[in-house]
């Protein structure tokens, strides 16, 4: 049974410090491995401090009930990744109530941030320094420039498609949420399939039908082998976030995957 978000607000300073200490080793292990593959600087002591800072900061989160969006374990993971990658430009596709945009702004106060979501009516937090758009990110004509950049996809669109879109526009560091294996597609309403995990599951054949149930309704997907192959050939490395739920009892962040695309 996962602890509810409001339980976080009942933690005193000592309990928050304990929480930070409990999750830090797993997050730092992830950061060291990802930094090596992505050719990033990794100051583990600075990141240790960053985690502690965010645990305190989370008490000021703008969305007190963010069910359906990023909650504590995902938020601290996104914050860590933004601190590690240190992007000067951030594009988020799927912003929902704005909580993840708040996390990204906290992590990178001076970065240019653009958030895209077809339905902005759910926004509870927005900031004039962030460009919120109701258009798909590909409609904005965005392409990589010389600045370090991070793309974050939490939009329930095929992750195979998003990999190819990002690669073709010159981006090389991409964070995905809802990276479910095929066996768990029923855990979300509209899975972004084929997901990163599915792209590397070569047991699926082109044209094969995948079926599952969600809320007693039958859902299905036809595997597009060409799309999976195209995405797979553009990916250099994949790092899955450690499951912090096993350490603290809050909802899992293990669906997050940091992907490095080929140069």
Please describe what this structure looks like.
- The protein has 263 residues and is of the alpha/beta class.
- It is 34% helix and 17% strand.
- It has a single domain, classed as Vaccinia Virus protein VP39 (Rossmann fold).
- The chain has helices spanning 13-38, 44-57, 72-85, 99-107, 159-168, 196-199, 225-232, 245-248; strands at 89-93, 112-116, 130-133, 149-153, 173-176, 209-214, 217-222, 235-240, 257-261.
- It has a 7-stranded mixed sheet with strand order 3-2-1-4-5-9-8, sandwiched between helices. A two-stranded antiparallel ribbon has the order 6-7.
- Helix 5 links the parallel strand 4 (149-153) and strand 5 (173-176).
- It is globular.
Features:
two-stranded antiparallel ribbon; 34% helix; 263 residues; seven-stranded mixed beta sheet; single chain; Rossmann fold; 8 helices
Query: In whole angstroms, how far apart are the ends?
Result: 43 Å
Percentage of residues assigned to helices: 25-40%
Shape: globular
CATH architecture: 3-Layer(aba) Sandwich
The CATH topology corresponds to Rossmann fold
**Can you tell me the CATH class?**
Alpha Beta
Number of helices: 8
CATH superfamily: Vaccinia Virus protein VP39
Spatial strand sequence of the major β-sheet:
3-2-1-4-5-9-8
Overall pLDDT, averaged?
94
Low-confidence stretches: none
Output the helix-strand order.
HHHEHEEEHEHEEHEHE
Query: How many structural units, i.e. domains?
Result: 1
Secondary-structure-based class equals alpha/beta
Let me know the largest β-sheet.
7 strands, mixed
- Cα-atom radius of gyration: 18 Å
Number of strands: 9
Seen as an oligomer or otherwise, the chain set is single chain
């Amino acid at each position: 049974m996962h602890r509810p978000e409001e339980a976080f607000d009942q933690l005193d300073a000592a309990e928050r410090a304990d929480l930070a200490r409990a999750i830090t080793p797993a997050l730092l292990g992830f950061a060291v491995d990802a930094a090596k593959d992505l050719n990033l600087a990794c100051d583990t002591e600075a990141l240790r401090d960053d985690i502690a800072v965010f645990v305190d900061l989370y008490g000021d989160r703008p969305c007190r009930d963010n069910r359906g969006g990023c909650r504590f374990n995902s938020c601290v993971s996104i914050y860590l990744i933004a601190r590690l990658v240190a992007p000067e430009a951030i594009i988020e596709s799927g912003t929902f109530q704005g909580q993840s945009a708040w996390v990204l702004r906290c992590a990178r106060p001076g970065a240019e941030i653009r958030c895209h979501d077809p339905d902005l009516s759910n926004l509870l937090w927005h900031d004039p320094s962030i460009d919120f758009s109701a258009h798909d990110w590909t409609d904005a004509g965005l392409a990589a420039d010389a600045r370090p950049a991070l793309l974050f996809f939490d939009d329930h669109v095929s992750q195979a498609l998003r990999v190819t879109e990002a690669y073709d526009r010159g981006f090389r560091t991409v964070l995905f949420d809802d990276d479910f294996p095929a066996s768990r597609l029923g855990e979300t309403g509209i899975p972004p399939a084929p997901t990163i995990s599915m792209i590397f599951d070569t047991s699926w054949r082109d044209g094969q039908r995948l079926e599952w149930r969600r809320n007693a309704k039958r859902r299905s997907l036809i595997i597009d082998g060409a799309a999976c192959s195209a995405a797979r050939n553009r990916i250099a490395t994949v790092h899955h976030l450690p499951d912090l739920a096993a350490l603290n009892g809050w909802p899992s962040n293990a669906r997050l995957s940091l992907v490095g695309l080929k140069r």
